[in-house]
Structure formats: structure tokens, C-alpha cells
Amino acid sequence: MRSELVTAAMILAVVVALTALVRYAYGEDKLLCHLEPLNASWHFRTQIYPQPDVKCWYNGPRMLSRDRLYWAEAPSKPVPNVIWQEEYRWRDPQGWSHQE
User: Fold this and answer.
1) Which of 29, 32, 58, 92 is most buried (CB neighbours < 10 A)?
2) Does 29 map to a domain?
3) What is the value of pTM for the model shown?
């Protein structure tokens, strides 16, 4: 009788360990924070690093863990400000143009 209990406890421990490993291996999907809700069913959380003072709007269950939310990273280099001017559209920097 005692060996049956030990065997059952060992099987239960193995099942619990395998379940934990599978959940850890696949992890939980993180949700991207938005500055504004995209529809009325969205919820928000605050204190999400690195913008703790801004509301993090997300599409998911209410009171989602803060660990599952994240802000998109800003680019490390500033994006150049490109001005599109019609008169320079076909001009080559070396002086050649397409208007022949």
C-alpha cells in the first residue's frame, strides 16, 4: 500500500514538473502597449517600464499582469527628417537629370 502511494506521488510530481517546463518553454505572449485604445473593449495599466506615467492600452483581459505588457523600443539612432520636394525628385546628386 505504501509503495503504491509513493508511486502515485512520483507520477504526480513528474506530471507537474513537465507541465511547468512546457509552460516555461513556450512562455506567455507579451502584449504591446498603445498610447490610445483602438476600440471600447481595450483596457489599460499604468507603471509599465520605461514609461510609468503613461497609460498602457492593450487588447486583452482586464488587470493583466504588468510583466506581460511592454512598450515598443524607440530607435537607437534618430530618424532623418526627409523633405520630399517635387523639383528634386528626378535630379541626381551629381547633376544628371531625367528631363532630356
Assistant:
1) 58
2) yes
3) 0.49
3-state secondary structure the chain: CHHHHHHHHHHHHHHHHHHHHHHHHHCCCCEECECCCCCCCCEEECCECCECCCCEEECCCCCCCHHHEECCCCCCCCCCCCCCCHHHCCECCCCCECCC
Q: Which tens digits make up the pLDDT trace of 52-93?
A: 899 999 998 899 999 999 998 755 555 555 555 555 555 555
Virtual torsion, Cα 38, 42, 47, 49, nearest 10 deg: -50
In degrees, to the nearest 5, what angle opens at C-alpha 55 toward C-alphas 54 and 61? Answer: 150
